[in-house]
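Subject: design request, 493 residues
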């Protein structure tokens, strides 16, 4: 959550960039990301060193005594934020241009890694030493503990004129964390987000694994899998790819499989590869058939991306794979042939586990669209018996553009109830959550909107007799008459 204080500091930084001559919002976000990455690299190196000491493992700092940059040797401490941020303006600027920025571009030794591929065309665009000094001072003033960095990106993206258009808006961090808690990643998983953006889902998944599987890094095979084969993310925005690659590297994932790829096109040939899908795919309306993989159109001939992505998820998941994905409400009740086909596919040929209906303000200030979370398992042989529905009314934030924290929050309840689905069987449909038998859904043309099954409990209201109401009205009229008479008397004085 971006607090008022942090928001004001970011707004101040934004103003510094604009008055300093950097006016393209995307350029501002990129340059801020690079600088925050450089700062965090220093902090992260210190943390990893302490962790290695605690575990009794050898550790080699990335800021070793001498770092090779091109054909030069540069003292490693000059590349540390905590050192160079105190340099005079001209020296700091020259050091950033000649040393630090080149250092981060070539930080990953493997030239085929995601980081190397997407940092290769990164450009340092801050035009003057004075502007760099102001920006670094401003970033020093940002407290980015815990989830604040993700919230900061959310706020920065809200400043883009294009934010929210074409489905390009960031999923709130607390919603991502809830979805990860529901699917419970394990060390053997292969996790994919085919529309990754800034890699929020992948970040949350690796954090969950670190927290809940602390022995993961004591096993050499699991550690290798975690660093090289566990995380996959695709996007068509190179800025987001750079941000994602930087974030994953910074948080200890050495070589995530982050690629520039149109997931819905023929260039994506993945089939039955991933055991866990976490995604909030774009809801950008229509595509040309020519740009869509023929395999996807066989299941649902549609131009709507939200439907095509659901078909894609089923194709790229392994048998037994799980998915937690966000869809617009229209997917739940749309009456087109394609809408019904994909819902039928999920229910008849796989196992639809849950539908969590979210309030329309979750994605504000980007959009007011109503959305839901679908949780399902790929079986290829059916398995849907009962589907769990939850009617989320609050997510711990106000549902207006400000999205301020409040006490009302259904998320802990959602997680707890989903963990204990055996206790949900007997819940009435007047409750926040309940089970719906498969046959009821089939009988309703595979409609998955919660209002189709939720029962509203009407409480009768008793009113006094008409004679009593009329008497009260006449009494009020008399009182009003007396007051009017008194007012006229006062005006005559």
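Subject: RE: design request

Done. Sequence follows.
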């Amino acid at each position: 959550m971006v607090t008022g204080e942090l928001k004001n500091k970011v707004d101040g930084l934004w103003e510094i960039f604009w008055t300093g001559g950097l006016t393209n919002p995307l350029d501002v976000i990129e340059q801020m990301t690079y600088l925050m990455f450089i700062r965090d690299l220093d902090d992260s190196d210190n943390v990893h060193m302490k962790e290695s000491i605690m575990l009794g493992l050898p550790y080699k700092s990335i800021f070793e005594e001498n770092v090779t940059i091109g054909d030069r040797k540069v003292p490693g401490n000059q590349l540390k934020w905590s050192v160079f941020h105190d340099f005079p303006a001209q020296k700091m600027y020259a050091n950033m241009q000649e040393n630090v920025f080149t250092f981060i571009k070539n930080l990953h030794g493997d030239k085929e890694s995601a980081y190397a591929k997407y940092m290769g065309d990164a450009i340092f665009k801050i035009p003057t030493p004075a502007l760099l000094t102001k920006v670094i001072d401003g970033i020093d003033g940002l407290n980015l503990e815990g989830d604040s960095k993700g919230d900061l990106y959310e706020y920065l993206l809200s400043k883009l004129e294009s934010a929210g258009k074409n489905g390009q808006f960031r999923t709130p961090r607390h919603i991502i964390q809830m979805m990860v808690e529901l699917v419970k990643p394990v060390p053997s998983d292969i996790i994919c987000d085919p529309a990754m953006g800034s890699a929020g889902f992948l970040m949350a998944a690796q954090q969950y694994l670190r927290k809940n599987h602390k022995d993961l890094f004591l096993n050499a095979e699991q550690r290798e899998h975690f660093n090289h084969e566990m995380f996959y993310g695709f996007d068509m925005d190179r800025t987001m790819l750079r941000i994602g690659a930087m974030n994953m590297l910074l948080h200890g994932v050495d070589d995530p499989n982050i690629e520039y790829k149109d997931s819905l096109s023929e260039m994506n040939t993945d089939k039955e590869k991933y055991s866990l899908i976490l995604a909030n795919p774009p809801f950008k309306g229509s595509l040309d058939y020519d740009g869509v993989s023929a395999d996807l159109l066989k299941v649902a001939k549609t131009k709507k991306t939200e439907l095509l992505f659901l078909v894609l998820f089923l194709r790229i998941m392994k048998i037994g794979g799980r998915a937690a994905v966000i869809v617009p409400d229209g997917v739940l009740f749309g009456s087109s042939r394609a809408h019904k086909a994909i819902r039928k596919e999920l229910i008849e040929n796989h196992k639809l586990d849950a539908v969590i209906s979210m309030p329309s303000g979750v994605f504000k200030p980007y959009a007011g669209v109503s959305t839901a979370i679908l949780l399902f398992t790929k079986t290829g042989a059916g398995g849907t018996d009962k589907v769990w529905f939850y009617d989320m009314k609050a997510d711990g934030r106000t549902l207006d553009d400000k999205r301020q924290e409040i006490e009302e929050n259904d998320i802990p309840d959602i997680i707890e109830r989903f963990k204990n689905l055996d206790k949900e069987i007997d819940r009435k449909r007047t409750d926040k959550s309940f089970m719906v038998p498969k046959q009821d859904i089939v009988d309703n043309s595979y409609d998955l909107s919660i209002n189709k099954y939720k029962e509203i409990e009407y409480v009768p209201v008793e009113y006094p007799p008409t004679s009593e109401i009329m008497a009260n009205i006449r009494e009020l009229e008399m009182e009003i008459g007396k007051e009017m008479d008194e007012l006229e008397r006062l005006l005559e004085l």
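Residues 161-167 have pLDDT under 50 and may be disordered.
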